[in-house]
From TrEMBL:
It comes from Nitrosomonas eutropha (strain DSM 101675 / C91 / Nm57). Residues 347-373 are annotated as: Disordered. This is Hydroxylamine oxidation protein HaoB. It comes from the Bacteria. The chain crosses the membrane at residues 20-43. Keywords: Membrane, Transmembrane, Transmembrane helix.
Amino acid sequence: MTASLTPNRRAQSRWFDRLLPPLGILLVTGGLVLLGGYAWLLLTPDEAPYRYQLAATGKVDDYPDLELEAWPDLTINQYDIHLEGTDQPIAQAWFGQRANQPQVLLNWKNETREPLLALDQKAAELSALATAIDKYAPRDALLLSWWDTSRQLALLTGRDVLFHSTLHEPLIVPPEWQAHAQAIRAYENEQTGAAADPQERELFLRFTQSLLNPLASGLADLRQLAGTRDAYLIVHISDLYKLGLLYPDKFGIAYKPYRLTGNLHGMISHVKTEMSNHGYYAYTVQSLSDELIRAFFLTDEASYHTLLARLLPFTSQPSPLELASPRLIYQQGGYWVYQLAEKAPAAQTQHNLQPAPDHDKTTDSTHLTDQVQ
């Protein structure tokens, strides 16, 4: 369906689809209902309503699920995240660190039903991406990506990035926590040891606004940011959600999780029904695990004609492989990597991180099987 939602319907749709359950109720593993943290908020408005509790510290071999064997020099710190006054963690986090450098979030496991603080993804996707970049990208290449991805790739590849600090944009918290955003940001800065840099924040604003622009002008803006260096643009399907949180009036995005039951066609039918019922324009999916996916829906046609949406695969829309510029050079899970600019003459051989898969732009199942693994 290509009919756009009205502004009111767009706002209502995003409100319903994005926010955590009403009254601040978080449902976690085991079916526990956690209300204590929200009562605590009313009493301590200047503190974050949760705490990182160090659960374990070890080498990469101690955490095989992270698939970080190629980086044996890293120290891994595992944390449980608790609401004040509760025993069950609402999330788990794994940070990587070298010597006395700031630690970097490498993996996040959310135990609630909605995105919280960070977004889940398969750990293997990041390690595969970093391995490809480390093997094939020039040592002086510049990587352009969302601030959290930038920090991860700087740690794992040693390549230069635009963003080294924790910018906390967007701040992914339930509405009950918004009044405490300043305290949450301060606590996250304390946790990582890499406070937000004002100049990087301004640069990140330019980066995200470029992703909102149409394809040609957005690319021109990003190439201006990159200058004359070899540059690669790295986007992830979850960036759609984050861009929508930053610019809710300019980029319409909704999401819904689906559990894989072995009946792929049945799940596709459910996704299409959701799209039809809400009048969404197109959808794509992200694989969270072997049992769970998350579908992202563009709520209107205008949102599709942004740089970010054009660089990702959406049903019934042209494949990113058909773009003449930028050139897709790598795709792994939710990551899509494009060569943004190269300092060598155009006639010189271009760098390839890995051949990208051949996508069929006309079928929903092709996009689903690319992302659901």
